Amino acid sequence: MIETGKAEAKKTDALRIAGLDCFYGEVQVLYGLDLVLYKGEVLCLFGRNGAGKTTTLKAIMGLVPSSAGSIKLAGQELTGLPAHEVPKAGVAYVPQGRRLFAEMTVAENIEIGLMARGKGKAVRENVLDLFPLLRQRLKQRSGTLSGGEQQMLAMARALCLEPQVLLLDEPTEGLMPSMIAKIRETVSKLREMHVSTILVEQRVDAVLSVADRVSFIENGRNRETVDVEELRADPSAVRRYVGVG
Amino acid sequence: MHFGPHLLLAALEGLVTSAVLALTALGLSLVFGVMRVVNVAHGEFFMLGAVLAWAISTAISGHPALGFLAALVIAPLIVGAIALVAERLVLRRLNYNPEATIVATIGMLYIIQQLALTFYGPEARPVEPPFSYRILLPWFGYSGYKLSIIAASALLLIVTWLVLTRTRIGLIMRATQYDSETAQAFGIPVDRVYGGVFALGAMLAAIAAVLIVPISQAHYLMGQDPLLLSFIVVIIGGLGSLRGTVVAAVLIGLSDGIISMFFSPTLAKIIATLLVAMVLVFRPQGLFGTASR
Ligand SMILES: Nc1ncnc2c1ncn2[C@@H]1O[C@H](COP(=O)(O)OP(=O)(O)OP(=O)(O)O)[C@@H](O)[C@H]1O
Ligand SMILES: [Mg+2]
């Protein structure tokens, strides 16, 4: 990995993945994946369709079993924990495609987020302050929200855990530019609140504007992790790392 | 008797059937809705409820109401415990695979049935009703106990509905039903929910059986009809929909009561089966179910 020695000294791990192997049945999808998320940063996972980005996040959540390697949350080993213990340890997940409980109301989706770590009214108010739009729609069935509103609810539901680590899987997928801007703004806000975030993102402009570092995922491996500054200086580097052209 | 009173009598009989059927079918529907498990042994939990009710009420001397009340509390608890053990030992190990659990619950059906035959025997045995008060209507007298079955069932259905929609446990059950993976990502211990739901489903069947056994009889083969009728109700009402289950149970129960009285029980069954066929063709998700996601 490319790191400057000085910056490295101040950084502490929020999450450290080492040598992670994951299978779906007989098919191996992650091959000794290494990944480090520092406290308070936004780390982007960038890679082609099917590279294993979602699988990486699911493995962190314990939703796909890992056959080798370790996942440490501030030193605590997560592999081997039952999936429902992972959120309690402080990792919140915004799945690809949002996966709201569509038949439930907005309020009920938020309630489920609060229940995960036993948070109360105060957290709920803070979260709704971040997404004021949702406040007017608490009684609405979440399946009837617009795509952008659904994404906000998915993020709100996750933030109800007051997580140390937030996993966001393509939150801007299929949204209009105005909504994308809003989501991006929220991610930046979260950084100010010192939430460590792993963001799966396919759009280069989004990566450049919100990320601190970028990990290029390819065929189930972390090919390279680079500072976003380096990419801003030379955006064509993105293509080089992804191996396009 | 004139037509009007005759119809009223038929409707009352039908409502008693509906009441018991609604509870039984609700158990089946919850298990399928939340766990995606088709519990072919559901009728055997019903039978166990009745058989245990007989055992408990005969073991307790004194006023029949005492024995009955004891049965109403204890029999469902025992059945729930048996279901929980079966869930842990069998369904969980099969990872709740939809096909494998069908085969496994067929196995459970025969095991439970044979155990009942071995320990309870082939006789049909009555349980004394807790009270034998008759309500005198202008045209005929009607069993107060039968009316109390309808009331008890309605009460239990309302309680279940409140639990599902207004409580934390209900929220957890619904989250598991809609998306078990995401539920886990929010700290919901899905396998414990499954265990609880399977036990609850069996207990609902057992309660229904305890309620009905004073007006029918306990027998080791009595689980078959409730199983079939529950499937009919669940298909018509829509899987996992409480409202649909209740509406379908009332529909089936009432039409069964009325058609049986004025025509023949066979015609009633034929019509119910036709209804199922039509629902499957024209509205496979059931009258109240939501289309599959
Ligand atoms: N449930 C599953 N069963 C079997 N294979 C799967 C499953 N989910 C994903 N895969 C396979 O694992 C590989 C990685 O998938 P993953 O969803 O992690 O990719 P991704 O990087 O998130 O892609 P995308 O950008 O399209 O979301 C793919 O080849 C995919 O086909
Ligand atoms: Mg993905």
| Averaged pLDDT of chain A | 91
Q: Give the largest chain-chain interface (CB within 8 Å).
A: A-B, 26 and 19 residues
Rg of chain B, Cα atoms, Å: 19 Å
Number of strands of chain A: 10
Our estimate of the beta-strand percent of chain A is 25-35%
Beta-strand residue percentage of chain B: under 5%
How far apart lie the N and C ends of chain A?
A: 23 Å
CATH class division of the domain at 1-81 and 196-245 in chain A:
Alpha Beta
Bound molecules: adenosine-5'-triphosphate, magnesium ion
Structure description:
The complex is a heterodimer of chains A (245) and B (293). Chain A is an alpha/beta fold and 245 residues long. Chain A has a domain at 1-81 and 196-245: Rossmann fold (3-Layer(aba) Sandwich), CATH 3.40.50.300. Chain A contains 11 helices and 10 strands. Chain A has helices spanning 5-10, 53-60, 86-89, 106-116, 121-130, 132-135, 147-159, 177-192, 204-210, 228-233, 236-242, and strands at residues 13-24, 27-38, 42-46, 66-73, 76-77, 91-94, 165-169, 196-200, 213-218, 221-227. In chain A, helix 4 (106-116) runs parallel beside helix 7. Chain A starts with a helix and ends with a helix. Chain B is mainly α. Chain B has a two-stranded antiparallel sheet. Chain B is globular, with a radius of gyration of 19 Å. Classes of the chains: A alpha/beta (245), B mainly alpha (293). At the A-B interface, helix 3 and helix 4 of A face helix 6 and helix 7 of B. The complex binds adenosine-5'-triphosphate (ATP) and magnesium ion (MG). Adenosine-5'-triphosphate (ATP) binds at residues 24, 27, 29, 47, 49-55, 96 of chain A.
